[in-house]
Amino acid sequence: MLSSVTINQSASEKTAQFSTRLAFFISGFCMASWAPLVPLVKARTGIDEGVLGLLLLCLGGGSITAMSISGYLVGRYGCRRVIVVAALLMCLSLPLLACLSSIPTLVIAIIAFGVGMGAIGCAMNIQAVIVNDASQRPIMSSFHGLFSLGGILGAVGMTAMLGVGLSPVGASLCVVAVTLVSIINAAPHLLPFGGGGGAPVFVLPKGKVLILGVMCFIVFMAEGAMLDWSGVFLVSLRGMDAAYGGLGYAAFAATMTIARLTGDSVISRFGAIRVLAVGSVCASLGIAFSLCSSSWPLALLGYALVGAGCANIVPVLFTAVARQTDMPQASAVPAMTTLGYAGVLMGPAFIGFVAHASSLVVALAVVAGALLIVAVCSRSIRI
């Protein structure tokens, strides 16, 4: 575990926190900018839910591959290099996702985008654990709050640009411009080191890390459902115009952002275990409410409830994995990150397969049921 003294040798505490928040913002901003493009990709290529699920599986495959080796890369090259390269890769691939209609070329672009998402997701969480440990107060929720803030700005911004008639390519280039400005400001203060140079290329989670990873997987699967399928649900089943499909994720991200920015004080007051249990039940009820709704405005209310419930679960889980003793921190954080983020990346593909075999309503109901498992498992967590 790295101390605040180590951080102060390369950057002040405030600049390290600033760069970490920008990294989380970039990740959320780029990821959410993809959400409004999903219904457009489906319409442009004329594919069904099953094929769309396969495309999303490519996104998840690229991300999981990158995450599985990012712990090693961060240990060898440092958080700064991995985060910068990952951000640039997303900037290169996003405009391609906005214009390509050939399935083979789309697969390549989606894999590249997934690799960038996976690498930055692992590296920024390693940096967050280091910076949080060096801080005099808990700040993990605020980091994830910037991810959510980036998410809502990305979803709303992309949806607004498409809504006023800007082409998907033009809108994606605007996202790229904001991302480049952000990474230029963050790069000088990102940590030039990682969680430990001796981290193996890949390690399986075990003990408490495995339990935390499974819980993280389920919560991230719910987030992935909001990212990739909320727009499809609203457009296909609730009659919303395709140009405004990103509002589903925006409603989810809005309440998540507010809850995360106030999450550190909420956790201090009510306790981490209660936040895990109540939050997961709240998120499950939100999905159920959206499925039972008769119109898209009511479905948006359900998505907002999901965001409020999921908000502080993941920050609590990352704090817990940094304090467990079953695995070294340099191995535990990448291991849990890989398993957890598999939910947001591989989960939507699973939802697509279930939707193709039955219906999208049934697939999302499975996610709602899985969230109740998190509430049950929360009793076994000690923080």
UniProtKB/TrEMBL annotation:
Membrane topology value: Multi-pass membrane protein
Record-level GO cellular component terms: membrane
InterPro entries named among the record's database cross-references: MFS, MFS_trans_sf, MFS_Transporter
MF annotations from Gene Ontology: transmembrane transporter activity
Pfam families to which the protein is assigned, alphabetical: MFS_1
TM stretches of this protein: 21-41, 53-75, 82-103, 109-131, 143-164, 170-191, 203-222, 242-263, 275-296, 302-321, 333-354, 360-378
CDD domains: MFS_MosC_like
Coiled coil: none
Main location per the UniProt record: membrane
Subcellular location: Membrane
Keywords on record: Membrane, Transmembrane, Transmembrane helix
Protein's recorded name: MFS transporter
